[in-house]
């Protein structure tokens, strides 16, 4: 594969195109400064303004959320896996009907396989603009987002209405629901009662992995974070490995499906049959199936990247409480 062809499968951090109207809470105070990025696959954005960088199916989606300090993403749920790792900053992840069932604070490199079927949200609790990278199960990402009732009600007060077709309409811009399209129904109490409210002691040990712990284990070989025999034992339709300087090798290898390389620390040189390129933290590279390649640190200092590969496992659910 030529360098030009690989560049079409590489998204640089500095070239990410944000969408500021991706979801129903885009105008709600406290959530109105966030940026949503769709890197691989269609994601779950509710806005036609969302730019998709790489549309090639991988069996999963890759996205990102960028937020200034004290900006939060409102409570929602997914049918398929949602896995985050922190690229920049400090983040609070919280869950439950009101976001009060439990929470965890994550730092750069930490990874969280948030259980499906549970309302969750997140907030940048650092002092600078932060970024989290997201992996969503399935090519269609489970058909969208389910919002906690208060999120839908609050959005109406600020001009955004979500149709039952999963699309947003901004009344402040003169938009209205098309004829025959009803508003997205708000969940009733019986439906809400089916959403678990697990304590942090139930969630954190099984669904959170700290970067420093993973890096200590990735000595001599990559550490399996998510997947069969992984540190986080779910098999949500993809597997995630952490590769560090101590576990990187120049021996080339290939996979029978596309793989995605996402550096979190350091610069990485990726060599393949046909070329070579350098990846920095926040860059995303999709390596085609069958292409022999190797990734190694290109500079001294700390170096780590996450690798994502699809599997034949179902894309959800991931909560077994």
Automatic annotation (TrEMBL):
SUPFAM superfamilies: RmlC-like cupins (SSF51182). InterPro entries: Cupin_2 (IPR013096), RmlC-like_jellyroll (IPR014710), RmlC_Cupin_sf (IPR011051). Residues 69-132 form the Cupin type-2 domain. It comes from the Bacteria. Pfam families: Cupin_2. Coiled coil: none annotated. This is Cupin. It comes from Roseivivax isoporae LMG 25204. The lineage of its organism: Bacteria, Pseudomonadati, Pseudomonadota, Alphaproteobacteria, Rhodobacterales.
């Amino acid at each position: 594969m030529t360098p030009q062809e690989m560049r079409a499968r590489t998204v640089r951090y500095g070239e990410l195109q944000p969408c500021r109207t991706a979801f129903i809470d885009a105008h709600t105070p406290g959530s109105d400064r966030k940026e949503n990025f769709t890197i691989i696959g269609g994601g779950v954005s509710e806005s036609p303004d969302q730019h998709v960088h790489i549309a090639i199916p991988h069996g999963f989606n890759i996205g990102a959320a960028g937020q200034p300090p004290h900006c939060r993403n409102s409570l929602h749920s997914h049918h398929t896996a949602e896995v985050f790792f922190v690229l920049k900053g400090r983040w609070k992840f919280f869950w439950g009907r009101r976001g009060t069932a439990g929470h965890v604070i994550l730092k750069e490199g930490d990874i969280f396989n948030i259980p499906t079927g549970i309302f969750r949200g997140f907030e940048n609790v650092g002092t600078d603009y932060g970024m989290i990278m997201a992996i969503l199960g399935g090519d269609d990402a489970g058909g969208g987002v389910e919002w906690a009732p208060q999120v839908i009600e609050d959005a109406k007060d600020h001009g955004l209405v979500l149709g039952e077709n999963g699309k947003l309409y901004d009344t402040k811009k003169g938009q209205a629901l098309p004829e025959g399209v009803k508003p997205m129904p708000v969940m009733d109490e019986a439906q809400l009662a089916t959403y678990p409210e697990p304590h942090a002691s139930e969630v954190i040990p099984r669904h959170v992995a700290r970067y420093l712990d993973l890096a200590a284990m990735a000595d001599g070989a990559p550490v399996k974070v998510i997947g069969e025999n992984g540190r986080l034992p779910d098999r949500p339709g993809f597997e995630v490995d952490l590769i560090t300087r101590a576990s990187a090798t120049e021996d080339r290898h290939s996979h029978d499906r596309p793989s995605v390389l996402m550096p979190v620390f350091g610069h990485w040189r990726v060599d393949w049959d046909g070329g070579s390129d350098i990846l920095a933290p926040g860059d995303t590279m999709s390596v085609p199936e069958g292409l022999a390649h190797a990734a190694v640190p290109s500079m001294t200092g700390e170096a780590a990247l996450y690798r994502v590969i699809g599997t034949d496992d179902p894309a959800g659910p991931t909560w077994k409480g």
